[in-house]
Amino acid sequence: RSALVIGGIVAAAALVGSTAASAAPGRPGEPRYGAGADGAGDPYFPLAGNGGIDVLHYDLDLDYTPPAPAPAPLEGQLSGVATIELVATQDLDRFNLDLRGLTASSVVVGSKSMSFTQTGDELIITPRPKLKTGQSTTVTVAYGGTTTRPTDIEGALYGWVTTRDGAMVVSEPDGSSTWFPVSDHPTDKATYSFGITVPAGRTAVANGLLVGSETADGKTTWTWDAPDPMAAYLATATVGDFRLEQYTAANGTPIIDAIDSTRSANQVAALARTSDMISFFEERYGPYPFVSYGAIVDNDSVGYALETQTRSFFSGSAGESTVAHELAHQWMGNHVSPGRWADIWLNEGWATYSAWIWLEERGVSTAQARFQAVMNRPATSSTWNTVVADPGPLGLFGTPVYDRGAATLHALRVKVGDTAFFGIAQEWVARFGGGTATTADFIALAEEISGQDLASFFDVWVSQPPKPTVW
Ligand code: ARG
Ligand code: ZN
């Protein structure tokens, strides 16, 4: 009896959020059904992701009508059927998916229609029969609505961003729920397939490989397959007036670029260096981790680029430093993803540093000079007033995360030497690729590979605000 009570307390304490399980008492070995938590437990975005489920695959069938020409409102119409394969990680009488600004019209679990509700940005599903721990099932959600131009916690455009000729779909950190029902946290990676139906003449670009396109009755369905595990924020289904350019990189990776028809040769010139960049980063970080690569260059802008997995997104034009940055993210951020959003410096620091070393390779500037430029910033700079390993949800994409993150890596390289530094980079990708890792994992690995005690080094570089004076 007391063991049961303790078991109950442990089970409840493991859940995070306001819908923690109220498991009914039962005999040992019997299911103890409860509700999955309404979030994955990330303090920056408490309701992002969901407890009690592990999604394995999303099959997204989308039908999208972009806005009519101005002066019609800048609003699209999206309807979708998401077929989601998942496994229960606890005995569930209820679980959530994230869905924001769209309305579900039916939910089927297995082959039976289920009752469901939507509260805020949570889609709450009550499966019957209930799900036992380890049980896999398929959840099919039909949904839809009017698409607008969602913004993140900082006010930046993200998610399904409606444009006159389609949509820009870039969802970091928690914007995937604006276009499909999702367990929206990097710790729940899954594979994806897409069928995206758009007016004939428009192109829909998603992750992975193009399976084909079929046109009937004035509509074209674009089918894409993304078999590499992917964090939800890296999924895209960007729609526009694109031409596709396909070729094979020197390492054999199929490249598919989607270039908006209005882009000039100059605006996309740096993409010609993609193959060389892949080879350069492979030498340093290990094999390119995915089935394909390529860029989307849209005529519209969200104000930033995003490393959408296998198909980086660029707003308006693709400059060389940014092209290198987004490519490097495929290893650093996409294959190895942050365990918590507080670990974002491991994404942005590595991607920024990667652009530094690429520009050094090209003879533009040295990494040492870029490091020195950061160190020359005055003590009053935000660079020296931020804990980069915990920048807060409003500081995720701030300058300190990028530049002090990169400077931290350069200082580490100076401290441990090139062999250990690139050994750390390769082992980081090899050991944690396909999943997630945290700052603590990085520090432990750096100590393991270098054989040095790096506790105070990382303390002053990533855990304390002031400018480090020694490294
Ligand atoms: N990870 C992107 C990059 O550095 C930036 C994403 C910014 N996202 C946002 N919601 N503001 O390439
Ligand atoms: Zn980045």
From TrEMBL:
Record domain Aminopeptidase N-like N-terminal: where: 57-234
Enzyme class of the recorded protein, top EC level: hydrolase
One Pfam family in the UniProt entry: Peptidase_M1
Catalytic activity, EC: 3.4.11.2
Domain named Peptidase M1 membrane alanine aminopeptidase: residues: 316-461
Gene Ontology molecular-function annotations: alanyl aminopeptidase activity; metallopeptidase activity; zinc ion binding
Keyword entries, A-Z: Aminopeptidase, Hydrolase, Metal-binding, Metalloprotease, Protease, Signal, Zinc
Signal peptide: 1-23
Zinc among keywords: yes
Keyword Hydrolase (UniProt): yes
Protein name: Aminopeptidase N
Matches recorded under InterPro entries: Aminopeptidase_N-like_N (IPR045357), Aminopeptidase_N-like_N_sf (IPR042097), Peptidase_M1 (IPR001930), Peptidase_M1_aminopeptidases (IPR050344), Peptidase_M1_dom (IPR014782), Peptidase_M4/M1_CTD_sf (IPR027268)
Required co-factors: Zn(2+)
Catalytic activity: Release of an N-terminal amino acid, Xaa-|-Yaa- from a peptide, amide or arylamide. Xaa is preferably Ala, but may be most amino acids including Pro (slow action). When a terminal hydrophobic residue is followed by a prolyl residue, the two may be released as an intact Xaa-Pro dipeptide
Species this protein is from: Microbacterium immunditiarum
GO terms, biological process: proteolysis
Record family assignment: Belongs to the peptidase M1 family.
